[in-house]
Amino acid sequence: MNKAVNVRDIIKKNIKSKKNKTEKIMPNIFLLSASISILTTIGILVTLIIDSYKFFAEVPVKEIFSINLAPLSKNPSFGILPLINGTIITSLIAMCVAVPVGLTAAMYLSEFASEKSRKTLKPIMEVLAGIPTIVYGFFAYSFVTPLLMRLIPSLEAKNALSPGIVMGIMIIPLVASLSEDAMSSVPNSMREGALALGSTKLEVTLKVVVPAAISGIIASFVLAISRAIGETMIVTIASGSSKTLTFDITQSMQTMTAYIVEFTSGDAGIGTGYYSLYAVGLILFLFTLLMNLIAQYISHKYREEY
What we know:
This protein starts with a helix and ends in a 5-residue tail after the last helix. The chain contains 13 helices and two strands. It is globular, with a radius of gyration of 26 Å. It is mainly alpha-helical and about 300 residues long. It has a two-stranded antiparallel ribbon. α10 runs antiparallel to α13. Helix content is about 75%, strand content about 0%. The longest helix is centred in the first third of the chain and has 38 residues. The protein has two domains: about 55 residues; about 230 residues, MetI-like fold (Orthogonal Bundle), CATH 1.10.3720.
């Protein structure tokens, strides 16, 4: 018993001896590291709000929500509806590609593929997420657009369809990976119970696994569309810079990110046009924030706990 007491004393003595300056400093360093992303977000938001205020102070709201956008003309106008329209349309085209392909890929990986196939195919698919977006942009412009022009003769060299499709290809790994993770988290007991009742593998997947994992699947869709909304290089290269409000996907459109790139690439000085970049950036930030909030809401509201 005395030996046990002595051992406890030795342990307490060692613990006290280790309470040096490093032990006191490191928690603060860890806290600072954890706060970097928050401080960065706050800094970006403050910058956007301050410079956007300078723009909104000079341009009336009626003009902002108009269809006339000519920031570098003699009589400039700053209607952002064509930019919002182009952003939404290209993002919807991307989701029309990414959702069915990504979801079916997730179903296969989660329910039908063997362990060996899953370990091989999933990393290969996720390589798509590591390809630089400028490469996707040139792929859309130099390969996808000429291919589509053979199928659609009225398609312009710069259009919304081609970059939308390529953006969809780019975000397939996001949809597939997150959806597969959600499906894999469904307990095997639910699968086994459905199979015991005579359901086929496909019926188990569609009627049991997918409904059980619906919160994670929908969240992956929303996160994917927020990724598409913020895409820059693909739409800059392949969608053109037309500032006309149109719903024809065969024509050129300009997105909010492409507008920022185009305007900052020129010789525009400080002025209303310059501050319009921050206004567009703020609206883009709000779009992305809204998508992430929706994803979190859906994830919490429809989450199934087993």
